[in-house]
Amino acid sequence: MAPDPESFALAQRVGERLRQLGRWLAVAESCTGGLLGAALTDVPGSSTYFLGGVISYADRIKVEQLQIPEETLRRYGAVSEQTAAAMAVGIRQLLGADIGVSITGVAGPNPDGLKPAGLTFISVAAGTLTTHQFQWTGDRWENRRRSVLAALELLVQALEH
20 to 30 A from 32, CA-CA: which of 23, 101, 144, 145? Predict the structure, then answer.
């Protein structure tokens, strides 16, 4: 399957900047199921700045692999600002990366309890920790695709400042 041109261009920018800075990136994904890692590795030479990631679709993996406190998941849920932030910090620590980015959300088409389809949180843990909330309105594929694009855009912003 050919890379999405929009995500490929953003992933190239991320890679160029990481290479210039000599920094390493790791990702923690839930609702995107590895699409962010795939977008990053579509770029030739990505092994010089991308360590890898964890697809933490199940809460158990968030706890066991990313060290998300069970209390965070109980109190705020898997789709929350707090969980996204903990995922970004967790993957950074787990893989020894300079930057960790996470995506967690409700891809759809159905809501998850009280959380609407399309609700997504993306965190970037670098020198600082930032978390952004999005409310997509597309179908399942479009919501996941837009989440990857947003994560790449946030990475570009973080790396250029």
Answer: 23
